UniProtKB/TrEMBL annotation:
GO molecular function: peroxiredoxin activity
Every Carboxymuconolactone decarboxylase-like domain range: 16-95
Organism of this sequence: Streptomyces atratus
NCBIfam families xref list: ahpD_dom
Coiled coil: none
InterPro entries per UniProt: AhpD-like, AhpD_core, CMD-like
Sorted UniProt keywords: Oxidoreductase, Peroxidase
Protein name: Alkylhydroperoxidase AhpD family core domain-containing protein
Amino acid sequence: MDARLNYFGSALGAKVMKHINSANKVVVDSTLPHATQKLVEIRASQINGCGFCTDMHTKDATHAGETAQRLNLVAAWREATVFTDAERAALELAEQGSRIADAAGGVTDEAWANAAKHFDEDQLAALVGLIAVINAYNRINVITQQPAGSYRPGQFD
């Protein structure tokens, strides 16, 4: 499978990616736990059907020491006992934030309040930013049909 467009090789696409990457760097450098960041990236990518991002973030999480058990259970996090309450709150917010079109009210007050119990204001800002950024990456990759499977951890560092 070949990508429809070499988005990353396009001058304009490169400019867009530079700004998205800058926003992502702010989140990565925040106090939002890195394990939580990876789980959110994986779950949003699963929901959006982005094979490229699912491949990348699961490999990066594995490289950072995440367990196969937890990675295998991200899609079924509600039934899994391997996630903390804070991670579960972040995953719920990621799901609702990625499925805005599916829910008439968007993110529920309950999901927000639950996340606010576990994260401070800066961490909530990082979490919202992360959900927005990963959804942007997902959409670029899905629209251009970026193939999945060949990512190597640290490839874009």
